[in-house]
Every structure is written in C-alpha cells, then in structure tokens.
Write a structure and sequence with these properties.
9-stranded mixed beta sheet, SKI2 subunit of superkiller complex, alpha/beta, cytoplasm, 30 strands, RNA binding, 1252 residues, globular, DEAD/DEAH_box_helicase_dom
Amino acid sequence: MERIDLPAVGPTDLPISLLEMGCSGRFELITHPHPNDQPLPPQSSLPHGLPPTSVSLETEVEKRFLRNPAWLPIHDTDAAFHRFLKLAERDVHIDSLLHCALSPLHSGISVVRDPTTGMLLDFTEVLLGDTGISAKNSMSLQRPPNPNPSESLRGSNTNYPFLPGGMEELTLEQIKKKSELEEDIDFEKELLTVPPGLKVGMDFSDKDAKTTKGEINLLSLLSTFDDIIDSQPEAEEKEKGHGSGNAPKLPRTNSLEDLGIKDSPSTPGTTSTEKKDGGTTKPTGDQEEKKRWAIPINITSPCDDFYKRIPNPAFKVLFVLYFYDIIILISYWLEAHESVFVAAHTSAGKTVVAEYAIALSQKHMTRTIYTSPIKALSNQKFRDFKTTFGDVGLLTGDVQLSPEASCLIMTTEILRSMLYNGSEVIRDLEWVIFDEVHYINDAERGVVWEEVLIMLPDHVSIILLSATVPNAVEFSEWIGRIKKKHIYVISTAKRPVPLEHYLYTGNSTKTQKEMFLLLDPTGNFQTKGYYAAIDAKKERTSKHTQSFGTKNPSQNTTPSQDRAVWLSLLHFLSQRQQTPVVAFTFSRTRCDDNARSLASMDLTSSVEKSEIHSFFQKSLRRLRGGDRQLPQILLIRDLLKRGIGVHHSGILPIMKEVIEMLFSRGLVKVLFATETFAMGVNMPARTVVFDSIRKHDGTGFRNLLPGEYIQMAGRAGRRGLDATGTVIILCKSGVHDMGDLNVMMLGKPTVLQSQFRLTYTMILNLLRVEALRVTDMMRRSFSESHRDTQAHEQQIGQLKQTLSSLPPLDTEGQLSDLLPYYYTVTELRLTAEALQCAVLGSVNGLKALSVGRVVVVNNKQHFNALGVILQVSSDSVNRTFIALIICEKGNEEGIGDSPKGSAFPHLYNTALFTPEGPCSHTVQKLKLQDVSAITVKTLKVIPDRIIDNYNKRQQLRFRLDPPGQAISTATQELLRLAEANPGGMMTLDPVNDFQLKSVDVVEGTMRLRVLQDSLKDFSCIHSPTFSEQFLRVQERMSVQEELDKLLFLISDQSLSLLPEYHQRIKVLQSLQYVDSSGAVQLKGRVASQISSHELLLTELLFENALSPLAPEESAALLSCLVFQQKTQVEPHITNTLKEGIERVLAVAQRIGELQRDCGITQTAEEYVGQFKFGLTEVAYCWARGMPFAEIAQLTDVQEGTVVRCVQRLDEVLKEVRQAARIVGDSVLGSKMEKASLAIRRDIVFTASLYTH
C-alpha cells in the first residue's frame, strides 16, 4: 500500500483525525487542534501489528535506558547521551524545587455560646495540640487513625506502638539532659558534611565568604523576655501595697506540671509532691508508708449494697454460684473500671468475671480482648461467648472471624503483634482479659505474657484469671507498679465441689472394691486408708508368692496387668454411677493402648449410640470422602460408640473437638487424656483417675508437682450436679510413698515465676521506636520486680540531703593529699580483707589457727594487740576462736576509747601494742575478721586452766584474786614478744607459708606490700588534725558509697539481662540488622516481623536460598522450623531439597558460631540441633496434592502432630511472604502464596466445629 502525503491544513479545514483502537477495526474521531497547525496523520494505539508483550512503553524505556547501561556505545558516548536526552526531553520548572507540602494548621476556630440559651456569641481561636503527628512518628493516642483499613486491625510494621501505661513521656529536663554519647557541637564550625549511614557527603561551606559572629543570641532574647514577664508582677505588687508583701513567689520552671497545676492546691505549710503513679498528692515524711499497688480483697465481707450502688448492672448472673458473693464483689470493682486478679480453683466460675467485663464494654460501646494460651481454648470461648453476647470475633493464626466485633478472642501472641504494630483496635480497648495466667510459667511462651502486660496502654484495664497460686499478691504488685494502677486481688482456695482422694489397689472382679480414702473433703490426710491400701497390696503379693514363688517386684506393669486394673476399676465406677471419668495418662502411646485394651467394654445404651453416630456423621460431612476413611477416624468412631474416648496431641483436631463435644454432653463415659486436657478446657467430670503420678518433663521422670496435680484433679466434680468429686490414684505395681503423696496433694502450688528473656524480634521492634528502649522493657519485667525504684529514689534524696549537710573537708596545706590517702587506705583494707578470706578459707590457714598460735588482734577494743588462741569452734561456717589477749590495766572490759580504731590505723601502723602501765589480760571470743595477722610464733599454753581461771575470776567473790600460773606465764610471754618486736612481728606469708599459689593471692600479696610502702609518703598523716579530718572523710565517703550503690541499683547497669542484651546487639550489628548507632536497617525490619527463628529466616531470604526452589520445595524446607519431635523414619527427598537442607544447616551453623563468638552461651551445635527435617517429605508431598491417608503412611509421626505442624507451617509461609514484600521480591512473595494455597486444603484446614 502506497504512502499518501496529505496536503497542509488550510484555513477552512477542520482539525480532524482518526485514531485506530487496537486490532478490532474500531476507530475514534479526534477533533482537538494540533499544535503548530501541522496536518494530522492517521494515528493508532498500537505501534505495529499485534499488542506488545511488555508491560508498558514506560517500563520498556526505563529498563532499556535507565537500568541497563549496555546500550551505550564504547566510543562517542557524548553523542549517544545527547540522543537519549532528546528521547527523554522534558520541560524544566525551577519553581517546583521550591514547592513544599503545607504544614498542618496549629489553631482552629471554637464557638462561644451562651451557657443558658445556647445562642452563638462569638468565635475564638484555640491552639491545637499534637498537630503533624501520625502513626509513623508518634506514640500518642491523639494521632489520627490509620486511613488504610487493611492495617487498622493488625497494624503495620512501620507504625509506632501506643505509649505503654506506666511509661512516662520524657520531661523537658530529661530532653535537655545530655547522654554519654552526646557532646557540645559548635553549629558554625563542627557541622557534619557526611550524613550518618552514608559514605560520601557534600561540603556546603563557602570558601570565599568570611564567617561573622552572630550579633544576636536567641537565649539572651528569651531571658530578656522572661525578665519583662517577671517585672509585671513586681510592678503590680507595688501598686497593691502591703497586703501582698508576704505572698510566696512561684518558682520559675520549665513545665506546668512542675507547678502542680493539675493537682488541687495544698494547704499552706503542707508539702506535697506529685506522685508518679497518678495525679494525686502524697505527704512526705517519716510517717509515709510504702505505696501498695496490690490490694487483697477480704472475701468474707461481701458487698451487700451492690444493687443499691449499681442499680442497673451490665450483666446479671443467672445462676446461684458457690462464689456468688465474690463475683458480686468483683463486679463492683469492674464497674469502677479497676483491674482485678482472680485466683481460684477450676470450675469456680471465673469465666463470669470475663463475661461481666464483656457486657460492660458493650454497654460502654468499647471493646474487649480475651486472650488464651492455646488455640483450642480460643475456639471454645468463641462458641460460648457467641451464644451469650452475639457480637464476638475470633483472631488466630489461620482464622479471622468478625474482626470488627466488640469482643475479640485471640491468642496472646497476636495481641503482642497488634501492640507492637500500633493496631487501631487498641484505641477503643477497655478491657484485656488474660485467661490461665499461670501459663506465664511456660519456659517457651511465658515471655509473651510479660511483654503484653508491659506494652498495654494506660487506658486499658486488666483482668487476670488464674488457678490458685501462692504469690498472687506479689505478681499483682509487680503489675500495679509497672502500670501505675491498683490491682485488686481476689484469691480463694475453696472449691465449689469438694474432692475426695482415693488409692485404688484392685485388679480383678474379687478386688474391684479395694478403694481407700486418702484425703477427705476437708483436706485431712488419712494415714489409716494409706496403711489399709498397703495391707491389701501386701496380702495379694504374699498369696502370689505362695503360689508362684518369690519374684523381684517391678515398677513397670505388663499390658495385660494394666487391662485387668482398668476393667475392674471401670466396672466398679459404672456400678456406682461415677461416670464420666477422665483418666490422665502421661503418655500418648499408653492412652491409645489403654483405650484399645477395653474392646470388651461397652458403656453406652442404644439411644446414646444412635446420638453418637448421628453427631459423628454430621461432623464428618465437612471432610472429603477419602479423609473420612482414615484409620484413626475409624478407630475413634468404634471407641466412641462404646463410650470411650482418647484426647492427646496426636489426635486429629476435628476428632478432638468431636470427643470434647460428646464428653460435654455426657456421651463419652471414659476419656483417656494427657495433661493438656486439663489446661483451660472446661470439661468437668464426675471422677478423675491418675494412671501414674510420675511424668517425663523433657529431661527425665519426676513426680507430679502440687500445681499440676491440683489442676488435673480439679476436673473432678461438676458444679450443681455432684456433691463431691472423686479423685483416684491407681496403685498398679505398688502403693506410692506416703511422703510423695502428701507433698503432691497438700504441697503449695507452683509460684508464678518470670520466664522473661530477650528475643531478637523484641529487640528490633523496640529499637525502631525512638521513645522505647529495650532496657525499659527489661526493667519492667517480672524478673526485676525486686527493684523498688521508688523507694531507692526516696533514699537517694535523703542521702543527698545528708551529704549536703556534712561539714566541708579541709584539704589545704598538709591535708592536700587526704583524699588520695583515703582511697589508698580503702584499697589496702579491701586487699587485706580479700587475702585474709583466702588464707582463713584455706586448709593450711585453718591448721595454722590452732591452739597456741600467736595472732595480732584488731577490733573496737584492741589495736595491734598480741593474743594466743586457746580454743577453736567446730562450726565451719561461722568459725570463732577463744583467745587470751594482752591489754592495759583497767581496759579488760573494753571501756577505754579507741579514737583511731575507725581510721584503720593497723593498716599503716604495724607497731605492736605495749601497755603504758601494768599489763593486764582478757579472754575473748574472736571472729575471723578480728584476726588481722597470723604470726610465726606459737606458745605452749594450757587452755582449759586459763579459761577456767579467767571465768572463775569474773565472779564477784573471786574478782580480786590474782591470776593463775598458766595465765601469768602466757601473758608475760606475749608481753615479752611485743616488747622484743615493737615495729611488728613476722607474719606467715600467704604464698610462701600457706602455699596459696592462685593468681589473685599472689597479685594481692604484691599489691599489699606496694600499698603499705606508699602510705609512708603521704604528708597528711603528719597534720595535727589528721584524725579528725580523716573521720570526716570517712563519714562523707561512706554516705557517698551508699549513694553510689543506690544510683547503680536504679541504673541500667544493674539489670541482670544487660550483658546478654549487649551480646545480642553485637550479633545484630555483625549481621547488619542494625547499624552502629542502633538504627534498624532493612534486614532488621524484615526480622522484626518474624515470630520465631527470625535470624535464620532472614538470612535465607537475603541469600536468595528460597528463590530457586519450587513452592512445594520451599514449604518442605521451611518445615524444619515447626517440627520439634524425633522420628525414626528417614525421609526420601529430591536432590534439590537435599541441597536446600545443606544450605539451611550451613547458615544455621554460621549464625550459631557468630552468637558464640559474641558471648551468647548457646553453642553452635545446640542452635543447629533445634532444626529437624523429619517432616520434609510429608510437607513436600502434601503441597503436591497427595491425599492425607497416603501422607500418614510416610512417617511414624501421629496424625494430629502432622496437622498441627502443617498449620504452623502456613503461618511461617505467610510471614515469609510478608517479608518478601518488605524486601520487594514479588516473585518470592507469589511463590510463598502458592505454597500456602497448596497446603491449605482438606482435613488439615477443616474449619473448627466450635466456629461453624
């Protein structure tokens, strides 16, 4: 087709052209005029033929010219660059460089109305606070809400958290106070030219311009302005006259809070200071009592006028509780918006407290968060609260239901994430309910509870529900102190249904009634029942011996013996109508074996069988056809029809829920369960049976702790149905030890203990917020609850006052070196004491201190006096000596003054004491610290005669008798030694004589000699006022030392976890997660969003270890992060996965070695050993679509564990996907999404029965 050249547009031609739209033959008419009056050729939306495959022309140009410099020719680059400029030519607008965003308005218009009529009177300008703040730069609740609805629920990793309650914002004084790293900067000469974090900067200084000193100083202007303001009251005072002459002048201050504007004015003469815990005032003085934050409530005096005070309560308790009065009491404090800690036994009705708070928040149109330690409990509470309140939501790792509801149920980890990420839900939050608070003792997850409690804002009230714990008040005191609010503690050890504890020794039809009461409902231990059980067991053993001969008794029983015991017990209990029964067995395998062994037992009626069958089939409808025929499901169906259930972590989650629901209906008569069934799952039974009282805790076998036993035994007894609950302990191999049983049943429950530890995620989340410090978190942890900072600060104020009131020191002339002398003497004293401890703690030292050894004694009564040891005590801890010591006549009882005693004269004056008049003696008991030196001399003495004679002469009738021959001889010998060695006697050397060759002792001995020699060079000791001035120095320094000690205790340096914090910061800096100034880098931002194994995952991400893998291979490789058990089956995996595993182990080894090098105690082998690859094949095949029935054949890991690991794997994949988005790796993000979709199927992700 020929090209047609159109003529130029004439004056009468219309500016019309055609635009071809794609390849469809559709055209559009363009009528706008063309610039420069050029003809309009036909145009097309396509450059040539078919549409291009590239994303857009802009992307193509950017990729070709900006990202890839290969298009530049080697020669003549200038011409090519000019050609590029023509392509990318654009108009230059210099004004755009000067454009800046409008600053937010700092004032607004307020309406003034008549208070009676409401008529508009005027408009006034008011200053707006908190302008320009956002979630990216402020922790204030005044910041505007996040406009992004997707981030309002969970928050964002770029958001600041809201200010935690009890953490005060920085005052003006704290902001002005310079830290150790800050320095004075000359803003004219010392400005930085290279920004922090960059390698290259710019020099903006004008080389030719001359710097001139500023004529005007801003501070001088401000001070002038202050003077003008201050001059006004003075002028007014002159006008007022004499009446205002005595008016107190307000001190100048930097903030209104220092003036106490918010507080009510105190009466004249009363000093009141603002408390840190609120806005109230408190008197200062000796009569002030220590502030108590935890307030125990007296539950014996209930609140009788509750309905008078609160006529319209938010929630009415519909049933009469055993603790009805207590619940009413708690409700009163909830109406007052106070925080409470409720510690009571299982089934005591603690949930009613949570329900009242939820109803209260719905009445106030606020929100409540209910946290639980385990996902199963969250699902159950969702069902219960949904029935009661309706407006309830659920947030777990894989489920999100009704997130806009007024009551949200979630695990504690999700709440922690919401707090760190500044979720908008926190704004409307009134209550946070922590259920099963005793879970804080969990070594792995306990730290999460402490983090959440510390991070909660001030406007949120706290409800803590727990089993009985001995230190509820102590725990509440810690929470109250860190949150600066009162915690009302309600603790009761009473049970709504009392328990009876029995020993069971039966094992056949004849002996099935052998059940002996061990602990009655009132808590009395019945030794009679214990001995009866022993007799019954002994009688059967003797009959067995007569029939079959003696045999060593074994602690372990055979399966057939176990079966006989269970059959006889369950027949006995079913006859007595004491079902349902929960049988706690501390082994998943034994749970399954015990249930299978009861094949001959049928405990259900035909009606119950029908009900079980219909419910079971209805529950299985949500499963695929193949999944309904899994071996475990078929086995459980057979067991349930006969009224027998099994509940442990190896059971499929949907099966556990079916069993729980049937048990709560009373259709499961016997449930073999592990300890997890007792944690929070509110499923009471008539009887609880303990298969054993020993369990394996991960390191070895041990007896049950009292807290564990109480928690499980508490499942016995249904409130409103049973008068008493029955607890039975099986004695299969023999009767347990009485002492063990007594401790287990009557011992104190486990106290709440801090499991606080530093994690990299916590450190990174706090480092990215400037106003929060990791040391603040450590200081507020329960492990540091012994730190009473408020009391210490009060003592510091008193010591500073004492220090300022002490007389000044005279350090002129001869006394100029008095302070250095004091420091030298102090060091000498400490060195001598350390050497003395080393000598007296050694075997040779104690041998030397035997009868007859001459020693030098220094204490309040004696100064460098010689003594001889007469007797040595047998107490090795607090060893004492009886010694005969020479003294002045008349100073036998220590009446004489020793003015130099407190100045440590024996340290620099080794001259021995010699009496000025007649020599006397005394016999005294000496402590180790009284012996300042052990001499080389020994005397032959008769200790018994000396001691008897001295004691006899202490009696009034024999006081004037002359001393005996033995005493006189010893005294004269000591006096002779003192006179023969006036400068001091030779003492035993710690190194040469006592053979103490340790480095500390050798260095200490050498240092002691140097210090003693240096004392002679000081001039202050020759001053006539030396003693008086030295005592002044000593008094001042003792106060200063106490002050320094308290200042250290309230400083960060005394935190127990501070060394580990520095070690972990070192690791993060080495891996470039934070820079040298502590600023979080990109790797750190990624790691802060990962809940566990954050270092390994981040390193794998940045090393591109996951990018080459297929989605199913990535899922298989990451399964090592969620699988913790050991497996005997070796997985069969692809070569790519083998290489991936080697790479993961190599990265883990490198991180482990780096941690070890930085001082962290965990070895590289321990760090690498926590990653187990036993489920790699299972995860790989599951992601590729293999049915679950075939998956179960690939491993010896139980089905329930496999499901739980795959569910947790999905959470890890979501975290990696989020991390990939932060990095900008969209390819990896889509791979993780594909992997997540591949594993989210069938029985593993079947919806919970509680939520649908």
